[in-house]
Amino acid sequence: MNRDVVLEGIDNTGKSTLGRYLSTELKTSYYPGEGPEKYPGECNERLRRYAELPLGQVFDRHTAISQDIYSVIYDGTKSDPALVEDFYRRNPIIIYCRPIGNRKLVGHKPTDDADEKFARKVEDWYVGLFGLYDRWALEKAHIIYRMGFPMSDVLKLVRSLLNE
């Protein structure tokens, strides 16, 4: 593959399921989201690490996108604009996973106490985060996916974008 595939969107919208499916079908590596930065500046370390990977990966979230959106609910470092620009220069295929209805975090399973606290913040800020993602996606997303839509249709769209 000559391009990365990045799935983005608010929590609990099917990114992980779709990402694993796409990586299997495209026979490439899958990188799950790493959550909020662990310490100040760690997001930029991730951006540098991801930039060293060969093209053709599937990312469930990418720090170049989610860090600045989610930083509104915690005191996170803003991503280095030069590193974000480098990310977009790689020309990834971006899939915006958009929620259906008022699903919010129903069924979402935090992995630990820190994730549980973060999930509560996401729930409190859900509408605001949703709005930030919508505004971002209008400019940057290639595909909009809604949970329950056939993943095979998304795969066809991704393959057509890869063949452009």
Derived structural class: alpha/beta
Q: Give Rg in angstroms.
A: 15 Å
Give the CA-CA distance, first to last residue.
12 Å
Number of helices: 7
- What spatial form do the alpha-carbon principal axes imply? globular
Strand content: 5-15%
Compute the average pLDDT: 86
Q: Largest sheet, order of strands side by side?
A: 2-3-1-4-5
Question: pLDDT under 50 segments (min length 5)?
Answer: none
| Biggest beta sheet summary | 5 strands, parallel
**Total number of beta strands:** 5
Q: What letter string, H or E per element, gives the SSE order?
A: EHEHEHHEHHEH
Q: Report the helical percentage.
A: 40-55%
What does the oligomeric state look like here?
Answer: single chain
Question: Can you tell me about this structure?
Answer:
The protein has seven helices and five strands, in the order E-H-E-H-E-H-H-E-H-H-E-H. The chain is of the alpha/beta class and 164 residues long. A five-stranded parallel sheet has the order 2-3-1-4-5, with helices on both faces. Helix 2 (42-51) runs parallel beside helix 4 (81-89). The longest helix is centred in the C-terminal third of the chain and has 15 residues, at 126-140. The mean pLDDT is 86.
